[in-house]
Amino acid sequence: MMIPASKALRRAACSLVLLLSSCAGGVAGSAPATAGPGTMSLYGAFMAGNYAAGTGHEAAAARLFAQAIALDPGNQALLRQGFVTALLAGSPNAPALAAKLGTDPLAIMVRGNAMMQAGDDAKAAAIFATMAPDGVTGLIRPLLVAWAETGAGETDRAIELLQGLETTPPFGPVYALNAGLIADLAGRAVQAAPFYAQAEQAFQAPNLRLAEAIASFQARQGHRDRADALLVRMVASHPDLSLALRALEQDAANPMIGSAKDGVAEAYLTLAGSINQPQQVLLRQILLGFALGLRPDLTAARLVRADLDIALKHPENAAADLAKIGPDDPLYGPAVMQRGQILDGLGQGAPLLPALAALAKAHPHNTAPLTLAADIERDAGHFQAARSLYSRALARLGPNPPGNAWALYYGRAIAEDKLNDWPAAEADLHRALALQPGQPFVLNYLGYSDALHGVHLAQAQAMIEQALQVDPNEGAIIDSLGYVLLRRGKIAEAMKVQIRAVQAAPDDAEVNAHLADIFAAAGNRLAARNQWARALALHPDKAEAAKIEAHLKHEAAGS
Q1: Which ranges of 295-367 would DSSP assign to H, the alpha helix?
Q2: Residue 382 CA: distances (Å) to CA of 357, 373, 390, 391
Q3: What are residue 276's phi and psi, to 5 degrees?
Q4: pLDDT for the residue numbered 66
Q5: Which residue numbers in the chain have pLDDT < 70?
Q6: DSSP annotation of 104
């Protein structure tokens, strides 16, 4: 089976509270409550809320937990769970729940954030200071307190707080950077400079926000060459941001932080970017929500949140978030690319083709917009348009393309194959292998294609087996091996391999249809008919469906 280029190129609530504070059990210990006519019982609302939260329907979960809390308002465990769900849903109930949760760290953050929004930074500082000084909250507490103190006019106290922590792992460089930002916001360039230098020296490869902060400072101090050099170095480590380089250089003349509230938002983004364990995904989501609630134009937070939404299997949410990033934003280019990849995966990439064309025109040496546009056209079945776009991207690379250009040749080969130009496709696949010897997707495509054409079958099997050595659990490659064994007449061996392929890709129509082919070759017509029927029920594409239906008609005629 041929692997699509897109795959080759882009390969509860209570547990969240446990990350920050102790969490009591569920509602099992509470007294059973019954609701009035037409309303849910406590247990029903709780279970329905749990189910909604587990299936990604945060807004519904928040409403259901609110019903449960109304029935048992003194249950602290239920309050915590409903509160976290309300935060994830962006529910207006969150502040009221936060007021009932005392020392819960997320509740403290919500209350402090509300004071920052209201302009009472001194009160916010006092609230943030009540957070526990250890664990995850211990990392962010000094930042929140320092920025709130800054907003209250206590700049010296804020800098002293962070200065005492600048050598403390693992957040020492972060504290130094924020001390620099605070001094910079106060117009104290001389005091800010050593803090910025200390933060820069701590990172061999600067991340986006560090590079933006220091480049902004250097540009405003008249050191434009240093600012540009730092941004170039950042992009070299993060090539996905290459489309933003020119805009970031132009934007460097503007301060990254304009207020203490911006600084608090930055602190939440920093912590969200620093914790990356699987069980911390929802906590990161909440922290990013805090950041964007305080500073809606914090585009870096939207980009990170889009990644989290994808990890949580909510691609539509990610695309909607990225759509809020406009063309005047320095990170517009990377946002369009990320959104385009998401929409392409959903089969909805066509509306972004004009934006990708504009990016390609604005960045004449960058291949990424053309490549993504080609992927979108190919996935939509517009193979001639895809072939042209891949060719334009390759032309930008010149006569000696880099090793990663194998993917462009691979994508163009698929389009050429679909256009029935196998000689051109085969040549491109060999070009891809020359750039990336042993690349499993390319080896598989070549081997499977030879099997389809009934030529070089021993060589095809060797290529597919080589691909499996690199990627032994890829169902499509296992399927290719089963198919080539069938073409070579090794039925028993093909059967064993193809059963493995179905186990690896149980919902793939083509893989299941190939198992039916092997059943038929083995003389087991009943099993073949059943397997073809199963494959047809898995919604194959039109070409595959036509082949399966032809097999079933032939079997019906012969029975």
Answers
A1: 299-311, 315-322, 332-345, 353-362
A2: 16, 11, 12, 14
A3: -140, 20
A4: 83
A5: 2-39, 43, 55, 559
A6: -
- How far lies 142's CA from each of 130, 350, 478, in Å? 11, 46, 53
Is 244 in contact with 334 (CB distance < 8 Å)?
A: yes
How far apart are alpha carbons 476 and 7 in whole angstroms? 11
CB 332 within 8 A of CB 302: no
Digit-coded pLDDT (tens) for 308-357: 999 888 999 999 999 999 999 999 999 999 999 999 999 999 999 999 99
User: What pLDDT score does 259 carry?
Assistant: 98
* Phi, psi angle pair for 152, to nearest 5°: -85, 5
501, 515 contact by CB (below 8 A): yes
Burial status of residue 142 (CB atoms within 10 A of its CB: 0-12, 13-18, 19 or more): buried
| Helices assigned H by DSSP within 346-381 | 353-362, 368-379
For the entire predicted model, the pTM comes to 0.84
Query: What are the phi and psi torsion angles at 266 (to 5°)?
Result: -65, -35
Nearest by Cα to 135 from 105, 167, 162, 176:
105
